[in-house]
Amino acid sequence: MHLPNNNRRWMLKNTAAGFGYLAFQALMDQVIGDESTVLRGAESGPLAARKPHFEARAKRIVFLFMKGGPSHVDTFDPKPLLDRDDGKPPPFALPKVVFAAQGNLLKSPWKFKNYGQSGLPVSDLFPNVAKHIDDLCILRSLHGSNPAHGGALLKLHTGSDQFVRPSMGAWVTYGLGTENENLPAFVTICPTLAHGGMNNWGSAFLPAHCQGTPIGNASLPASAASVKHIYNRTTQLDTQRKQLDLLASMNRDHFEENDREKALSGRLNSFELAYRMQTAMPEVQDLSGETQATLQLYGIDDPITENFGRQCLMARRFLERGVRFVQVTHSDSEVQWDQHSDLVQGHSKNASEVDKPIAGFLSDLKASGLLEDTLVLWGGEFGRTPTSQGNGRDHNPHGFSMWMAGGGVKGGYAYGATDDYGYYATENKMHINDLHATLLHLLGLDHERLTYRYAGRDFRLTDVAGQVANDIIA
Description:
Elements: H1 8-15, E1 60-66, H2 80-84, E2 112-115, E3 120-123, E4 136-143, H3 149-158, H4 168-176, E5 186-189, E6 213-215, H5 237-257, H6 262-285, H7 292-297, H8 306-320, E7 325-330, H9 343-368, E8 374-379, E9 383-384, E10 395-396, E11 400-406, E12 413-415, E13 417-418, E14 425-427, E15 430-431, H10 432-442, E16 452-454, E17 457-459
Helix pairs in contact: 1-5, 5-6, 8-9
């Protein structure tokens, strides 16, 4: 057979289009974990499941990301003194660097009530999530280092607010692989394209298969979210299979001669994953087989909750099929959780969109038994100040709340504290590095051992910091 420019690069370039190449072009330019194995549903290779460093409490993570920064003093961290001193000047020094000018103290417009056997308080913004309080571990002492959205998002997602680093989902994938080689190990549903964009789910210098696969983006409704170019409308599956086998056979001799040809191996592995995903991915996203009761549980029958409910239900379907890390983002171009003004209107809108879907998601995971070994993380890139900006609040990275559920954490438990007004973390302070160390620990990974050598030094998600919050582990 005569082919013009008959060489390996020509073949790869001209046969790639049929294998979902465009959807995974970012996967093809970096190093893959095991350069000697071209995957075909094998038990070995870059996406194969790996053993943790020690016994894990969780097998997988889902991160419910509330972009913009929900206010902790209006959700899960009540401050009676803030109510008492509403309108007064703050009786504490503000940070040397603030995002914008701040006014006097502003009490919460919402009332807090105690729920469950634990009696932990939750505001009226989350009446449905509050019913699950005995499954939640409220982290009240988070703090970071950056008051701007871009830096704070990168810090939360990658451990660094200054440099391009692998995302936490990429690190988890690198450490543990996946339990379903027909799907990516890390997916992010309707991610925001702002404030770091793909760097928040990228793999940076880690092997390319570790990066997240985006399902749509925040500017699209979840009903329209999909992996681009997942279908090959010109070539049948059996023909694609023959093409891939031909590529593998043509390059076998080259692999034997040059065992350092990782980029080529990575490219071929990405073709294989794209081939398998053509049938696996659409099946995951097809909700038509779900019962009406399940759709109602997630709020998909209500236009207010339909969008986020659909994202949460997709997340459950990914998790039960072995995807290791799933992120679900609540964000839009209008309000998000960034209420510098109109706090009541903005937070009320946002909470009404996510409260029922999150509660339904927790109920579903618990009923199926998935919650036992699935770690649920909820929160934003920072909190908000107890001081006012008119009728809103400024960014506050100095003390804020997140919560976890399932995956080996204590339920009905509040860890750490902010000061009496909610500005600074004071008790059992938990830096973002500590959060990452704790997440990895629950997955059976020692954050100090999970390293990757690049540019002459060893890197890790927690860099040179990070302490595991052992008190929250059940």
